[in-house]
Amino acid sequence: MSDKVHGLRSFHASPLGGMAARLVRARLGALWPEAGRLDVAGIGWARPFLKGLPSGPGRRLLLTPETLHAADGARVQEGRLPLPDRCLDGIVLAHALEASHAPRALLRECWRVLRDHGRLLVVVPNRLGNWALFEHTPFGQGRPFSPGQAQRLLEAQMFRVTRRDGALFQPPLPWRWAVNLAPAWEAPGRWAMARFAGVLVLEAEKDAFAALPAGAVAVRRRVVVPVRSAAGRRLGAPAPRAGGAGRRAPAR
Predict the structure, then answer these.
(1) Would you say the C-alpha torsion 240, 241, 244, 248 has a positive or negative sign?
(2) Prediction pTM value
(3) What one-character DSSP code corresponds to residue 146?
(4) Does domain 8-211 have CATH number 3.40.50.300?
């Protein structure tokens, strides 16, 4: 398996790529029905997937990390996005994490530019699915993820995964009859083979409280001073015996 992603432009211009984009767009639209009024950025090769979001007054922005050979937006460094803090309501990461040289740095930048409780949609190849086995599609290149790996990566970068979904259950056969039959696989696939989807679609929310320090609270240094009672006797010391106790009896 190649560690880079090639052929993005030609794949998404083909019938197989167009079908894949339509099926993934359907899942994104179901997850974000209110996206038309949100400011959303697509990072990676996200144009085919942003088309599935509802239209509205919200702004759209396309950014392509320099790790991708083909550009479909402004070229950026994945660890230094040219955006101010908390300027976006949502981000769609597609063909980005599997090709990233520093996925943690990319996700931390996404966290930075999202507004409080902003949402992130991640589309990545599923390690358990059949699309990761064929290199004639971009989903068979780069680094695939299992559902658990993707969720742990997001949670480690201060995101809270709220929903996990999948798409592309039919094998990536390029023949026209197979492409035409692909939509019929989706509903039964999500019901019977959810773990074996070709791509994972994860929705995560920016966890603003995750940036607060956690763990054991440092204990201040304490100095123990003997406490005396009102009678002047140190508390905790043995009480004097009655009748002058405490004075040693003379030896006989």
Answers:
(1) negative
(2) 0.79
(3) -
(4) no
